[in-house]
Amino acid sequence: MTSRRDFLRGTLAGTGAVAAAAVAPRAEARPMPERSPDAVGLLFDGTLCIGCKACVSACKEVNDLPLDYNSPVDALWDTPLDTTARTFNVIKVYKDGDLSQKDSVENGYAFTKASCYHCVDPSCVSACPVSAMTKDKVTGIVEYDANICIGCRYCVAACPFGIPKYDYDSPTGAIGKCELCRHRTEDGQYAACAEVCPTGATLFGKVGDLLEEARRRVALEPGGTTVYPRGDITNGPDQSWEGPVANYQQHIYGEHEGGGTQVLHIGAIPHQKLGLPALPEYSYASRSEGLQHGLYSGLVLPLALFGAMTWAARRNSRHDDEEGGEK
Amino acid sequence: MSSHGHVEHAPVGGRLFTPVTFFLAMLVILALAVLGVRFIHGLGAVTNLNDGYPWGIWVVADVVIGSAFACGGFAVAALVYIFNRGEYHPLIRPALLASLLGYTLAGVGVLFDLGRYWNFYHIFLPGYAHVNSVMFEVALCVSLYIMVLWIEFSPAILEKFGLKHARKKLVGTMYIFIGLGMVLPMMHQSSLGSLLIVFGHQVHPLWQTMWLPLIFLLTAMLMGYAIILFESCVAAAGYRRSVEVHLLNPMARLMLWLLAGFLAFRFADLIARGALGYAFEGSLQAIFFWLEIACFALTFYLLRSSEARRNPANLFLGGVALLMGGILLRINAYLIGYDPGAHWSYFPSVGELVVTIGIFALKILAYIIITRRFPVLPREHAPATH
């Protein structure tokens, strides 16, 4: 029989092993990736959006998506209030008071766009156990493959923007989300929402160009005029127009949020009032994966634990042979 | 008491068809009916799942809580084989059976929840498996552990069919599986906490911490000891056997030390992160946090002295209180403390509850059938007649 001291020693050793296993993850988060130089994305400028929803309609058409509605009463029209597995892009409205002035926080209204942000370090990609959700190394587009997906919906729960959506009404439901019209790039086309936008409120291009344009706009003097490009800012053609300058918030949403995104938002209304989450500059994926790497890098810790456990089990199970039904 | 060996196991015997087993079987059939609708019409037809709460009780209760309930085998094996406390040997086999059933059905329960279940094997294919995903780690370790549990339990099956030679061979290599049976649950029970880290700010600060893996691992072990208290008392009552108070009393004492360590750690983490203030807000999360803590505190009260621990009622209730604490921690972290945005809400549907109840009923039903026919429980030296 073991003495009390032996037991305590064993307990301490065991507790030490468990504590060591848990201290390891304190090793810092894994480094965050940089944006690819060829990463593409969108710049959404709420001050230019007139709420026509041409982008919502075009998105449905090019992605071959059915009509969607918020309640059965609305079923005659395409009336989703949020993105769903069948609606990858919606325009939402901000309302306050008597709605007399566009882009005013008080007594005003404004539009915002909800679609995938194509994070530089996406939570959904980190979460996916089967690589059905992946990030293209060149374009940075967060892509989804239903043929690989097991439908665990970890991506749905993980996304800080609530973007990947699952189709609960189908026995073979899949995830639906914006993939920046990657199926159209072969034909030299680009994201349909930007292509049809009449004011350039949604602009397509390389993220570097979009960031530069966003910085230019927020630095403009309110009340003046400036030239706004439309369509694809990187590859053209030039479809720009001249218009008035609004009073921009001095913040480009997505430049740093959650490790950065490839879809950027600027506008006159504080972003949090439009429903965008206030995110830290680090990505949640870097924390989660840093922890996992700390615990499992090279399988050193699990193998050491396994070795220790097996050694102890061998030592302490010697008499098990006699155990059991036989006499 | 002897420290090692010579533990005799014997089938309890008795009828398999009783009002209790009939009732349990009915619950299982009800669950199967709901699952039929789920597989024909989709998850939306029977669940209240939505894109704000894509994980409901089929994940949280059937898998996260269900597998923690199944940590009895792991918890007792740690005592017997790692800390060399051989006197607890009689508790191992029944605990292993409960673990085996719990984990196997948690694994099956995953398939009910997966939206594209026919692709499930992708998680094990080198081209598809994504090693950075916490879910991948959980799936792999749980699958391996289910196999390890069957191997650990197989001597009972071999004994039943009189395969002494095969049994002897297997027992000689058992220490490897015991080692795996320690490491694999440590890996995936901690990862069931790590799953939440990537959710970031969506999980309330009372539960979102980089220490989630340790918090989930410690509570899983605690729930393992608690389920042994629970199961020993229920099995004794159900089969009219005597409660193994001489084993459960000292085990419960060790359990309380672990619980005290856990609670100290839990509060140290909350204070270090400056999150304890949230516990004093008038929010639903604060209320559920204190409910969780109250259950752990109640465990202390119920099992406070050796005298209290010699009373089977206290052992049973102490086990239940601790299980409730572990259950609440998991429900809180995954659902109550999970906030995907203002316009989303979730409460399980009747269909979801029926399936979850059916899975737990199947575990109990299988436990009854197997303990009546296979040598699992220690042989009673003065068998009660009934």
TrEMBL record, chain A:
A GO term from the CC aspect: cell envelope
Domain of life (superkingdom): Bacteria
Entry keyword annotation includes Disulfide bond: no
Pfam families in the record: Fer4_11
GO MF annotations, alphabetized: 4 iron, 4 sulfur cluster binding; metal ion binding
Keyword 4Fe-4S: yes
Domain 4Fe-4S ferredoxin-type residues, every copy: 40-70, 107-138, 140-169
Record key words, sorted: 4Fe-4S, Iron, Iron-sulfur, Metal-binding, Repeat
Compartments, as annotated in UniProt: Cell envelope
UniProt-listed InterPro entries: 4Fe4S_Fe-S-bd, 4Fe4S_Fe_S_CS, FDH_Electron_Transfer_Unit, TAT_signal, TAT_signal_bac_arc
Protein name according to UniProt: Hydrogenase 2 operon protein HybA
Organism: Azoarcus taiwanensis
Gene: hybA
From TrEMBL, chain B:
Subcellular location: Cell membrane
Protein's membrane topology: Multi-pass membrane protein
Cellular component aspect of the GO annotation: plasma membrane
GO terms (BP aspect): anaerobic respiration
Entry keyword Transmembrane: yes
Keywords: Cell membrane, Membrane, Transmembrane, Transmembrane helix
Gene3D superfamilies: Formate dehydrogenase/DMSO reductase domain
Regions that span the bilayer: 12-35, 55-83, 95-114, 134-153, 174-199, 211-239, 251-272, 284-303, 315-337, 349-370
PANTHER family on file: FORMATE DEHYDROGENASE, NITRATE-INDUCIBLE, CYTOCHROME B556 FDN SUBUNIT, NI_FE-HYDROGENASE 2 B-TYPE CYTOCHROME SUBUNIT-RELATED
Family: Belongs to the NrfD family.
Identification of the protein by name: Ni/Fe-hydrogenase cytochrome b subunit
Organism of provenance: Azoarcus taiwanensis
